[in-house]
TrEMBL record, chains A, B:
Keywords: Carboxypeptidase, Endoplasmic reticulum, Glycoprotein, Golgi apparatus, Hydrolase, Lysosome, Metal-binding, Metalloprotease, Protease, Secreted, Signal, Zinc, Zymogen
Name assigned to this protein: Carboxypeptidase Q
GO cellular component term of the entry, any: extracellular region
Location of this chain's protein in the cell: Endoplasmic reticulum; Golgi apparatus; Lysosome; Secreted
GO molecular function, one term: carboxypeptidase activity
InterPro entries for the chain: CPQ (IPR039866), Peptidase_M28 (IPR007484)
Organism domain of life: Bacteria
Span of domain Peptidase M28: 258-445
Gene Ontology BP annotations: proteolysis
Pfam families: Peptidase_M28 (PF04389)
Length: 455, 455
């Protein structure tokens, strides 16, 4: 009989909390779809401020703008965290053409982030096409020296998730210039990381690592249509001359900031749950998808909690990280200071995969925490959230070191992401208001559940 | 022992078929993502032919174009099925403004499909705002006679699926003119069925039912921004005069066609499995989402089977239905002829919810068939297909009457659909190639499974 009573009590408690949670998620989604500012903040960031490359005026304006908006939410604390960031400037519009006899064919290119410039009058040389870093190494110095190397391995369309295609392709962009430089190449042209055939070059960081400055060779991305055409031309004219000119420049590091806002926990203010995105962007579009969306979604998580008068047990902190794109200095600084002050981070979530329809979560945690989160799947079903997979959470939250921390990345639909990623069309019009808002609701819901059930 | 052997045989058979099915779905998705024509067909339909309103030149060109493309696939039979369809023509660009004193404020409007014209010089009258048909009826003839009625109930953003918001809002558009006309109104202006605030009016059919021609009043849609502005102006100036002018005209019905292609079943050629979309569109954009996408996806289902040399047991038939938008004459004709010739349809699938990332299926069937289909859910998991819900399948396949037929609608992500639906921005650039292809793979996979396991 006693057992029966306990069982009944337990069942009652479970259904009560299930109902409470269902109700709370419903309120969260309703608020997100009818009463939050994320879309309007994104409009301002994108259309009033524009791109936010680290060290740019836009980045500094974005720091002040988001700080002001967070202050308006009536949080318990809003502050800036200083961090030194790279300042790389693209310079004049890049120029590229292939020369066959007297005919010049122009190509849309853009300097890769942190690339060095070409000589002032540009660089002209033979160009050799490879599909991979391995193929480059097989060619060796003899065939590479004095040439421009053209990396032209397309993203593999067979992957269902486009991020897998990106991951298995981006080594050309990140390491191509370093590896080709070691073999005496003069420059590097990389096929844009874009599954679609179009005319937009997509930038992104190239990493010279410890290559001495004077040995660094210039690197640019070429549009996917451009890459197809250049490859075709090379088949017909293997000796064609390729010319490109870019005047990008790296200046000394400058001071910038992570932007931080908090709702203090009522029971465990010392336990911290972070939600964030990165405030910097590349300089070609206005960074609406990457990662304006993630920033405003994270801000709206706290906005939703304030609007619902939800008092979290643990401290909920939004962090807008500076400089994810070309250095992750903001993420590193945040992690370093958190460790130094022995902050206890129990949870961190990042949204940095675009503002598309949310599908689920990518989770980094121990088995127990994973099982707990996956156990909430049914609560998310009415909101069409179905992916609870283990995998990479986010670059900026990577350096947070707390023991047993659970890290989560929002997982939106990925099909369109690389149409816009790091390109001139990453602009406000590519973001759908509802998709953005559903993302913020999905993030807030998981934060609520974790806050409620963390022990 | 005998039981054990049976069990082992059964388990072996189940795992063998599971592996075979997994392999087949992998091949289907791979083919769709790398080697089908649906996106290029859609480019032609949208950019070379343009809109395909029933009775228009575009509709007739689309019939010939898709028939030719189906013939190139090497199907067993390609043919046209005659059907008489309405011919409604929009006429000159519509004009609308509100007049307060001497100030005129213009509004973007478009005539609703099948609407009558205003008098030649337009219609000017007081305008009265209501939120619903019920509110209109409460106002009654006394307050409505001689006025223009402005239906301004927004789609409810709280629904997660936008089709639910549409379904609970569209009565204003479909019945508003009929109901207002009965109360002596002179015309009707309806807020566009669009969750987004923008400047595009969205057309769609208005249904006068048996209202005598001379008693029909003209009806137009106004953009959502326009509706917001007009509502605000009416609060300040309840007596403002509203003017609109549209010259749309209905001609006698004309001959058109459903376009049909078949792969004959190897075991049961008499059993028919249909896959289709509707070839007609509205006339404002080029109908890429509604429903060019569904047509080319359906065509590519058969293309995939041909490319994989898959020989279906049952006959697989693609049907591109004419005239879904303003009459469903193609669907009705197809159903009528199927009944008359006692064709045995075991399955019908329609794609008419846009070319966005596929999420699952909306299924109309008996419990047993539903359970069977839902049992394949795990096979679809690698492709992020997770919705197996009971619900409306498709308008064109509705009239097919075979006993125990299973009807399925492809269920894509719905968040962006009503941004484009029936508006001038329903154009090719709104469709993402991969999303379209994933849709066709999802359709082909379910067709394959049903064909394989139907008994």
């Amino acid at each position: 009989m006693k057992n029966l009573i306990y069982t009944l009590l337990f069942v009652t408690a479970v259904s009560w909390s299930q109902t409470t949670d269902e109700h709370m998620l419903k309120q969260i989604y309703k608020t997100a779809l009818t009463d939050v500012n994320c879309y309007y903040w994104l409009d301002d960031l994108s259309n009033k401020i524009g791109h936010r490359l680290s060290g740019s005026d836009g980045a500094e304006k974005a720091v002040l703008y988001t700080k002001t908006q967070l202050e308006k939410l009536g949080l318990d604390r809003v502050y800036l965290q200083e961090v030194m960031v790279p300042k790389w400037v693209r310079g004049a519009q890049e120029v590229a053409y292939a020369e066959v006899g007297k005919t010049k064919t122009s190509f849309p290119i853009c300097a890769l982030g942190l690339s060095v410039a070409t000589p002032k009058n540009g660089l002209k040389a033979s160009i050799i096409e490879v599909k991979s870093l391995e193929e480059l190494k097989v060619l060796g110095e003899e065939k590479v020296r004095g040439k421009i190397v053209f990396f032209n391995r397309p993203m593999n369309p067979e992957y269902i998730e486009t991020f897998h295609a990106y991951g298995s392709c981006v080594d050309q962009r990140s390491s191509g210039a370093r590896e080709a430089g070691l073999l005496g190449a003069l420059g590097v042209i990389v096929r844009s990381m874009n599954l679609r055939l179009d005319d937009l070059p997509h930038t992104g960081m190239t990493n010279y690592k410890d290559t001495p400055l004077e040995q660094r060779i210039p690197a640019a991305a070429i549009s996917t249509n451009g890459a197809e055409l250049l490859s075709k031309m090379l088949k017909d004219n293997p000796n064609l001359q390729f010319y490109f000119n870019q005047s990008c420049e790296t200046f000394p590091d400058v001071k910038s900031y992570n932007v931080i806002g908090e709702i203090k926990g009522t029971e465990h203010p010392e336990r911290i749950m972070v939600v964030g995105g990165h405030l910097d962007s590349w300089d070609l579009g206005d960074g609406s998808q990457d990662d304006g969306a993630g920033c405003v979604q994270s801000m709206s998580v706290l906005e939703i909690f304030k609007k619902l008068h939800y008092k979290p047990k643990n401290t909920i902190r939004v962090v807008l990280f500076m400089n994810e794109e070309n250095g992750v200095k903001g993420g590193l600084r945040y992690g370093e200071l958190a460790s130094a002050s022995k902050e206890n981070h129990i949870f961190a979530m990042e949204s940095d995969s675009g503002g598309f329809s949310p599908r689920g979560f990518s989770i980094e945690s121990d088995d127990e925490s994973y099982a707990k989160i996956a156990g909430w799947k049914n609560l998310f079903e009415p909101y069409l959230i179905h992916i609870f997979e283990r995998g990479h959470s986010g670059t900026d939250i990577g350096p947070i070191q707390s023991e047993k921390i659970v890290k989560v990345g929002l997982h939106p639909d990925s099909q369109r992401y690389f149409d816009y990623h790091h390109a001139a069309n990453d602009t406000f019009d590519s973001v759908n208001k509802r998709e953005l808002e559903l993302g913020t609701a999905t993030m807030a819901s998981l934060m609520y559940l974790f806050d409620t059930y963390f022990k």
